[in-house]
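Retro notes, structure queue

What went well: the backlog is down to a handful. What didn't: a couple of records were mislabeled last round, so from now on we paste the full input next to the output in the thread. Example, using Protein tweety homolog from Mus caroli:
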Amino acid sequence: MGPRVPHPEEAASPGAALLPFSWAGNGAPGAGIGIGFYGNSETSDGVSQLSSALLHANHTLSTIDDVVLETVERLGEAVKTELTTLEEVLSVRMELVAATRGARRQAEAAAQYLQGLAFWQGVSLSPVQVAEDVTFVEEYRWLAYVLLLLLVLLVCLFTLLGLAKQSKWLVVVMTAMSLLVLVLSWGSVGLEAATAVGLSDFCSNPDTYVLNLTQEETGLSSDILSYYFLCNQAVSNPFQQRLTLSQRALASIHSQLQGLEREAIPQFSAAQKPLLSLEETLNVTERSFHQLVALLHCRSLHKDYGSALRGLCEDALEGLLFLMLFSLLSAGALATTLCSLPRAWALFPPSDDYDDTDDDDPFNPQESKRFVQWQSSI
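Corresponding output:
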């Protein structure tokens, strides 16, 4: 069999003319996908930082309530048992009974002062619940954007494949998918823009908004909320008076117990055990008091508040802006692709020219026709 004669329609493949605009139309979504993954990760990091700050703040608030409750119960138990026993033992010495009753009054006063320090007790707003709700929404948001990114990637790849293979059915399917992704991209642009604008407005002056909202939800006084949200020298500690009175009451109890130890133990050996128990209770109470002073200081909760704001106003906002850029790039490129696909369709060869058989197969109808034409030309 003689050499195969090249045909003019084989000399210039239409696929070669389609590939340049194919790469141009799908290059922007390809670059946007990388931007989208980065933005999605940054947004997720910001929301995770917000949730972590809320959980840590809840731990601090719960610890304050627990320490106050344990201290008050410990003082109440000391009043009911050791001090009552001590009064019975020292009943013959009225001056010692008076000192014991003075310690009882100071213990009851200290318990009352400390009871008012559990400011979060009974508040309906739970930072844990807020953190769980935020995490729940973020998980679905993150998953939705990952699926959108993968969908854009698949549409780009299969569009390029359809153009390279000159497959009309694949181009038709990808045209419909491109239209769907275009609608989703423009929808995400609107959602991201609205969220970014609202978040930017919030971040311009967050203290006032958060203070008013928290006061409305919790019913706490503005002095307490301002102390923790602002945490500066212009705002005084609203618990300072109670802390001072509690410290004085504990110091008075300690002084009275020392006096009772000097006077009562030499004369009443039965008073030694309740006095030692009271001294141990007082030492534990003083340690709890110092822990409570540290917990009630604004540093810890204000640090959590600042961490939550940084997560929202830095990482999350930056991620939203990158996601919006991804959506804009995808929408613009997909719109360009949809406008260009009809031109690509026109460049495709007629369907009669497609055949899945091998060109070198002698039983190929196209090859047989070309062979007959070659013989007739000799």
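Agreed that this is the format going forward. Reviewer comment attached to the example: Residues 1-18, 352-358 have pLDDT under 50 and may be disordered.
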